[in-house]
Amino acid sequence: MCGIVGVYNISRKSLNAVPEHIYKDMTNALSHRGPDEVNDIHLDSIWIGFRRLSIIDISNGHQPIWNEDKTIVCICNGEIYNFKELRHSLMEKGHLFRTACDVEVLVYLYEEYTTDMFKHINGQFALMIYDLNRQELLLARDHIGICPLFYTQVNDHIIFGSEIKSILTYLGLQREVNLEGLDQIFCLPGLCSPTTMFKGINALRPGCYLLVKDGNYLVHEYWDLIFSIPPERDHSEHYYSRELYDRLERSVKYRLLVAHQDDWQLFMSPEIVTDILDEKCKTAIIHTTSGDAGKGDGFWRAREEGAIASLCFCLSSPGLNAIRH
């Protein structure tokens, strides 16, 4: 878990009128998300801050990350599971990597594909990319919304962050309860993006990106589950069973490659731990249990909701064209 935050003047004017202590307050509000490192960049009309929790390439994977000629900059909270394949394909296109960090593939993916980059990513992420040549800001959230990302507008300034508390520290922002959000809290299991508890502050919807260009911004959907499309042709029960096994195994292996841990446990409720999970997790050297989590230093714990989300994303990863845009 890391934290991203930033301010962008959509009129492309300088941010010099914003007191420097505001930026510090915004990054400090996310200190619990990234205790290992804090960095920021101020580029006339844009300021971005980053709080890092170091996991991959601890020594060199500092953010913000630039492309080769420093015309594109990126910050990202999350993990790009297929970054090794992406890195290989981008190197074949001539891109030079300076780190072993998974996030570095994002700047080069943007160079190659711009907003079509999300067709190639398997991961969980909330990211910001700023293109200095085009003077365009891109905010994006992963396919099913594992990583949070919020934004609002104050006059000509777009303010964004991993948590609302960082946005609330911005100068001149009015705090007002959103009655629609309050209604959802009482009537639904939780808030439905883009609604939040604060009027004027929005959550970027899962599977969407926000593009700021020419003084305006629009939210675009790049992915969604489609349940109504019939299969291309009928297959046997064995075929679908085999497909589920293979995709689940690949999903687990991706997550093991990213996290670099020796000891693992997967914690799920007894209703979730089925024969297929047990077999695939054993294959990937994961020990499945139920009940309370152990307290070993090397163990990573996942709440049941997170485990279910991972399985859902496994079935919605790039390559499943029947259920994705």
Rg computed from alpha carbons, rounded to a whole number of angstroms: 21 Å
Counting H and I runs of at least 4 residues, what is the number of helices? 8
Query: Helicity level, as a percent range?
Result: 25-40%
Strand order of the largest sheet: 2-3-1-9-8-10
**Which regions contain 5 or more consecutive residues with pLDDT less than 50?**
284-325
Query: Which band does the percent of strand residues land in?
Result: 15-25%
* Main structural class: alpha+beta
Under CATH, the homologous superfamily of the largest domain reads Aminohydrolase, N-terminal nucleophile (Ntn) domain
Largest sheet report? 6 strands, antiparallel
CATH architecture of the largest domain: 4-Layer Sandwich
Taken together, the total number of domains comes to: 2
How is the CATH topology of the largest domain named?
Glutamine Phosphoribosylpyrophosphate, subunit 1, domain 1
Mean pLDDT: 81
Alpha-carbon distance between the termini?
28 Å
Shape: globular
| Order of SSEs | EHEEEEHHEEEEHHEEEHEHEH
The CATH C-level class name of the largest domain: Alpha Beta
Number of beta strands: 14
